[in-house]
Amino acid sequence: MTREALINLFLFLLLPVTAGAAWLLEEPFIITLTTKVAILALAGVGLNIALGLGGLVSLGHAAFFGIGGYAMGILAAHAQSFDPLMEVTFLIEGTKSMPVIWLVAVIAGALAALAIGALSLRTSGVYFIMITLAFGQMLYYFAISWPAYGGEDGLSIYVRNGFPGLNTLDPIQFFSLAFGVLALVLWFAGRLAAAPFGLALSAARQNAERVETVGMSPYRLRLLAFVISGAITALAGALFADLNRFVSPTMLSWQMSGEIMIFVILGGVGRLYGPVAGAALFILLEHILGGLSDFWHVYLGILLLLVVLFARGGMIGSLAGRAVAHD
Amino acid sequence: MNLRSWVLAAGLTALATAGLADGHGGKVKVGMITTLSGGGAGLGIDVRDGFMLAAKMAGNENLEVVIEDDQRKPEIAVQLADKMIQSEKVDIMTGIIWSNLAMAVVPAATAQGKFYISPNAGPSALAGKGCHPLYFNVAWQNDNLHEAAGAYANDAGYKNSFILAPNYPAGQDALTGYKRMYGGALAGEVYTKLGQTDYAAEIAQIRASGADSVFFFLPGGMGISFLKQYAGSGVDLPVVGPAFSFDQGILQAVGDAALGVKNTSQWNKDLDTPANAAFVQAFQAEYGRLPSLYASQGYDAANLILSAMAEADVSDADAFRAALAAAKFDSVRGDFRFGPNQHPIQDYYVREVIKEGDVFTNKIISASLTDHADAYAAECSY
Amino acid sequence: MSMLLLIEQVLNGLQFGVMLFLMAAGLTLIFGVMGLINLAHGSLYMVGAFAAAAVAGATGSFVLALIASLIAAAAAGALVELVVIRRLYDRDHLDQVLATFALILIFSEGTRWLFGSFPLFLDIPAALSGPVTLPGGIQYPAYRLLIIAVGLLIAFGLFQLIARTRIGIQIRAGESDREMIAALGVDISRLYTIVFALGAALAGLAGALVGAIQSVQVGMGEPVLILAFVVIVIGGIGSIRGALVGALLVGLTDTLGGVLLPGLFATFMEPSAATAVGSSLASMSIYILMAGVLLFRPTGLYGTT
């Protein structure tokens, strides 16, 4: 077992152990926080496929996160008010069932990523960063000013959506669900990185010309990576909205994109478990520093700066050494 | 036992024990979620200071307050609410400034059996169809101050108003509220971008519209920008707005541009009641600044809770609710009672911005609406 | 809509564009010469506005306030460059984005720590407070005319600086071949600090000029920062001329879009729906413009590959 594999195992067990201990100690809020870590880590895992594997610095991933959130909000709001979503040629009803919501979120996220990616990937470098930011802002302003689904007020769902066989309102059961999804996606992302597609994508990041000469199109590789990445982030968005029973345009804001990126960087870019470590550290800091001072953002900023300047490769990189597992 | 039933059993135990841990024997634990950092922190700080001042003056040891900062982010507010309910096990929640945060927190909190006393936000959804027996609003329904402005426009004889607000739900409510009372014609109706800081384009439209008056709702920095630019534009139509853009916290940043502007409010520091005089004096002594509208609402929220504590034990929810609904406390606004949807029935005033020495502040010039209730009460049924 | 109103709105768009240019010029120079994405540029804008408000409050002089904004922002810029930014030149864009995002957090909350949570007061001088009447009978605020004049003057000065002075030659050389000018004996780290401080000073000046007609508060820099990025991406990153053209395009699109679109939709929709749709579309218009430009010219209007 390499040192990184050990760290990964530790991180993987960290969440259920924390949640389990909190459950034994009857601290439901700690379980809620752990659930939040799992869901934000999921969003980070999504971004990491574009960022770490594909080298695509997207500053607009909040768009997919928010689309997932609104998929949940819109479907559940219609189910809540018994008001069908659409009556075109056949009737489309809202739903309170998580599996259906997740499916819709993943499809919506993938389609949005396909559209945004197809246009954005024509550019590269800084232009790519900025055009993804611009698409994110477009959706953000659209969500704020479109009155049908609450505008800036967002949408509240009074009761969390259901999952067959579980009581999702119970913190520990909802945690188990979120953690299960995270574990599945981590497994998928690990397989993806090792599969021919992942290897080709990594190669395209390092040397696009060489990939082209063997007859593969870097554009298509990247587009596919971007679509998978957007779909996973949208799934995380749907779960996040369900955690809060609420969705609003702040999920689409560029600060949200920045935060998802922070999870990835704090943990270590391109490391499979980087987002888990990053999200856990971020939430921990938010609660420790937030308790110490109203001005905790200053400390967060300084810490972030130190990580970027001196701890390249993030937490996992510092602990496990320089080699990136994906390569 | 397979894993699923184990988890299920575990969850039920957790719920059952959480249920037993309630009840504090005469004690009341209040969870305050408000905005203390980032943009808009000034409003939350005032609500908190007003609330804590009342708690301090009452000296009631049975009142315990936990305060958390929502950073004006709905997601954070929702998580803090979970924390307050799940770990802190509070009885009453309060503090939220913004309607969008209230919409995220209040329905979930009341659904879990907690009282919520709103010291500021009063979205129409919570006053009408979404009203709840455990939800009380001690400030106003969102439309009220705008309705008062519309009523004032009639009194002042305005016939052709130009109205503007940001393009978000509270902005749409504002224009609806104004139009509900205002009887004249509209020279223009404009929705601006939320967070917009340059109003040159809108001011040019006002100039060209032939209006005889301007009504605007632009809270926070948006209002400061608008007023300064309006004053520099040479358009000198009378302006009226709700108190938010003319409150103690931001008036100093607007400066001379605000002088003489009429604004509507349910409170001002010169309201002549003993409770108000005591509040204004104590606030200045405690914090060294003039109290704002928000501070007065925080102060009233605390006194409402204290008055109910004197009547009933919070563990008896029905009795405590009745005690809250009776509103037997000395409001700094004078007469105050709750309507059937537990929103205020109260008087609204027209204020004018003046300068006292070096400090910009407001004085009341007339009454606008008396014993006014909100328009959504009829839609509310428990 | 009358012709007069339209002209006035064009002037408003021009004024907004000129302001954006002051922000965008610094950003694009810093990117062109050092290859650095600086998200903290909006914080320097805020620093300028706060410095101006503090000095104007203490002395009552608007001219001193403007000078203070230049000095404070340039000093903050130079300090940040020496302590943090120079470690980022060799890093990839990702590290730059993150580190400067961290700087935003530090600057914003640090400023709130120093100045409190309430907006500060900064007003325009009394002499400029009223409107002037332009030929054709248009009434237009004197101060906004001044902003347009100052902005165009600075744009002209910047072109001269880059085209004719020694430092301008070094900047242009730095844009095309960084290693070469270091090899030719130019003190490259000094040049970088100067360029960064120059960009910061322009942002600070913009903050002070705009702060006088808007509100001076924490977080005022970020919305402008995003717009400035849109500007330099449209114009082509690294090109001062592109920044000017992009700034004017964005300024005019944003202003005229907000004014004209609701009216346009009202011709075939009912008024309140038209206002809603028009306003929504107007708030997205500059991002649509940017996406459109990039689709046809992936490196912006004046960008080089």
Strand order of the largest sheet of chain C: 1-2
Mean pLDDT of chain B, rounded to whole units? 88
How much helicity do the residues of chain B have? 40-55%
The averaged pLDDT of chain C comes out at: 87
Percentage beta strand of chain B: 15-25%
Number of strands of chain B: 13
Helix-strand sequence of chain B:
HEHEHEHEHEHEHEHEHEHEHHHEEE
Report how far the terminal alpha carbons of chain B are from each other: 43 Å
Show unreliable segments of chain B: 1-24
Q: What's the CATH architecture of the largest domain in chain B?
A: 3-Layer(aba) Sandwich
How is the CATH topology of the largest domain in chain B named?
A: Rossmann fold
Organism (chain A): Roseobacter insulae
GO cellular component, one term (chain A): plasma membrane
Transmembrane segments (chain A): 29-50, 62-80, 100-119, 126-149, 174-201, 221-240, 260-285, 297-320
Protein name (chain A): Branched-chain amino acid ABC transporter permease
What is this structure, in a nutshell?
The complex is a heterotrimer of chains A (about 325), B (about 375) and C (about 300). Chain B has about 375 residues and is an alpha/beta fold. Helices cover about 45% and strands about 20% of the residues of chain B.
Characterization of the model:
The complex is a heterotrimer of chains A (327), B (382) and C (305). Chain A has 13 helices and 4 strands. Chain A has one domain (19-253). Chain A has 327 residues and is mainly α. The two termini of chain A are 17 Å apart. Helices cover 72% and strands 2% of the residues of chain A. The longest helix of chain A is centred in the last third of the chain and has 27 residues, at 218-244. In chain A, the strands form 2 sheets. In chain A, strands 1-2 form a two-stranded antiparallel ribbon. In chain A, helix 1 packs antiparallel against helix 6, helix 4 runs antiparallel to helix 9 (218-244) and helix 10 packs parallel to helix 13 (314-320). Chain B folds into 2 domains: 3-141 and 272-345, Rossmann fold, CATH 3.40.50; 144-267 and 348-378, Response regulator (Rossmann fold). Chain B has helices at residues 3-20, 41-58, 74-88, 99-111, 124-127, 144-155, 169-181, 200-209, 221-233, 248-254, 274-287, 293-311, 317-326; strands at 28-34, 63-69, 92-94, 115-118, 135-137, 160-166, 185-192, 213-216, 239-242, 262-265, 337-338, 344-356, 359-372. In chain B, strands 6, 7, 8, 9, 10, 11, 12 and 13 form an 8-stranded mixed beta sheet that branches. In chain B, helix 2 runs parallel beside helix 12 (293-311), helix 3 packs parallel to helix 4 and helix 12 (293-311) crosses helix 13 (317-326). The longest helix of chain B has 19 residues, at 293-311. Chain B starts with a helix and ends in a 10-residue tail after the last strand. Mean pLDDT of chain B is 88; it is low at 1-24. In chain C, 75% of the residues lie in helices and 3% in strands. Chain C contains 11 helices and 2 strands. Chain C has a two-stranded antiparallel ribbon with strand order 1-2. In chain C, strand 1 (131-134) and strand 2 form a beta hairpin. In chain C, helix 1 (3-34) packs across helix 9 (221-235), helix 9 packs across helix 10 (240-266) and helix 10 runs antiparallel to helix 11 (271-296). The longest helix of chain C is centred in the first third of the chain and has 32 residues, at 3-34. The N and C termini of chain C lie far apart (43 Å). The mean pLDDT of chain C is 87. The B-C interface holds B 37-39, 41-42, 45, 167, 189-193, 195, 197-198, 200-201, 204-205, 207-208, 220-221, 224-225, 228-229, 231-234, 249-250, 252-257 and C 1-2, 4-5, 8-9, 12, 15-16, 108-109, 112, 117-121, 123-124, 128-131, 139, 141-144, 210, 212-220, 223, 255, 258-259, 262, 275-276, 279-280, 282-283.
